[in-house]
Amino acid sequence: MTTRRQFLALTATGLAAPALAQKSVDLGLAGGAPTRALTRDFPQKGEMILQRSNPPLLETPFDVFKTGTITPNDRFFVRWHYPFPTDIDPRRHRVAVTGHVARPLSLSLAAIARLPRIRYAAVNQCAGNGRALFSPRVAGAGWANGAMGNAVWEGVRLKDVLDLAGVKPGAVCVRVSGLDAPTAEGAPDFAKSLAIDHARDGEVMLAFAMNGVALPLLNGFPLRLVVPGWYSTYWVKMLDSIEVLDRPDDGYWMTRAYLAPATPFADVAPGTAGFARVPVAAMSPRAFITNIAAGARLPRRSLHPVQGLAMGGDSGVRGVELSGDGGRSWAPAQLGPDEGRYGFRRFMGAVAAAPGSARLMARATNMAGVSQPMRQNWNPSGYNRAGVEAVAVEII
Ligand SMILES: Nc1nc2c(c(=O)[nH]1)N[C@H]1C(S)=C(S)[C@@H](COP(=O)(O)O)O[C@H]1N2
Ligand SMILES: [Mo]
Question: Above 50 in pLDDT, residue 4?
Answer without folding.
Answer: no
